[in-house]
Amino acid sequence: MRPRRLELREPRSATEWDRLHAIRKTHIFDVYHPPDGPWPCEYDPAHPDDRDSANRPLLLFADDEVAGTLRLDLKPDGRAVIRLVALEPGFRGGGLGAAILELAEGLALDSGARMLCVNAQPGVVGFYARRGFTPGRWEGCTTCPRGVPMAKPLMGGLPIRPEVRPVPAGPHLQRAA
What we know:
The chain is of the alpha+beta class.
């Protein structure tokens, strides 16, 4: 069932911060960066990037229930970077991925951004491509060989000159048969 009300906002309580961290750890770090994997990385709930005033850790609420999280980093050159995107399994497959991205894009535009960037995992490159993102390296993009830097120009906001360069198509961009 599609939620009647969606809200993307900053956590307002210790309980909400705990949910944000639990979603990130369980659905991003434990999946893509396990200790025994090729790119191990331990999740740090006290990472200073979450306290940087230019970065906005956000929770997605669907009918007042926490459904997912992302962080929107606003750069002085007019870029906005979407990071740490995850939905709880019970909220996947119903259009909330597109909804959280649309809400984040609105926040980016309201903040004056002209370019939206993301480091996509190979399994979601098609999702981002269907929403106007194209593969290309940008300042601060991932150095992880598994990640696929992508960017999307936004209408409105402050003028910038994006430094997005095409990357060669690889197996992560090929459509499944």
